[in-house]
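Researcher: Next sequence.
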Amino acid sequence: MTSKNSTKTYVLNSYYHIYNRGVEKRKIFLDKQDYSVFFSYLKTYLTPKDEKSLRAILSSDESSPKDKDRSLKLLRLKNYSSDLELLCYALLPNHFHLLVKQQDIVIDSFTNSLGTRYAMYFNRKYKRQGVLFQDVYKAVLVESDEQLLHLSRYIHLNPTKALKSSLPSSLPEYLGNRNTNWIKKDYILNYFSKNNPRNSYLNFLGMSLDAQFIYEAAIDMNDE
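Model: Next structure:
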C-alpha cells in the first residue's frame, strides 16, 4: 500500500512542505556537526554556484589537491538556486521539515540528492550501512495562503514542542536575530506587520517578546 503523501504531483511555481524521518524513527542527527553538515548541503544547493572562483582554484598551481578535489565536486554538483527557494526549515533529532517554493519541477531531484548525500556522510561517519531515511520523502502541495502560514508556524514551533529550543531552524531569521540571504522569509513575513505587535509574526506564533531570548542562543549554522 502506498503511504500518504509518497505519491506526488508537482506543480510549477508552487509551495511544498517536504519532510522525512529516520528509518524505524531512529535519530538522523547525533551531534552539532551532523546538523551543520545537513545545513551546509542545503546552502550549497540553494546558493548560486560561483563557477569562476571554483575554476580559478582548479587552474591555480597554489591550490592544494584537497581544494582542487572539493572544487571539482562542487562544479559537478547540481545547483537548484534558480529553481527552488527555501522559506523555512526545522531540523530535529529524528526528522526534518522544509517549506519550499519551486519554480521548475526539481523537488524530486533536489530532495533525493540531499537525502542520498547526507546518508552517505552519516553512514561513513558512524560506520554503518543501509538506508537512513524511512521510505521516500513526503511532499505536500500548499493550496492556500492560510495553509502556507500555518505550515510556517508548525515548522517553527516543532523544536519548542520537542522542548529543544536550541535545535536548528529558520526562526531566528524570522525574529530578526540572524540573516541568511538564501532563506526567503519575506514570502511569509509580508503577510504580517513590522510595526503592529498585534499583527506581528511573533504574535501569530503565540510567543511573547520575552521568548525571543530562547532563540538568540540557537545553534548558529551560518558560522559552521
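Model: The longest strand covers residues 84-92. Confidence is low (pLDDT under 50) at residues 208-224.
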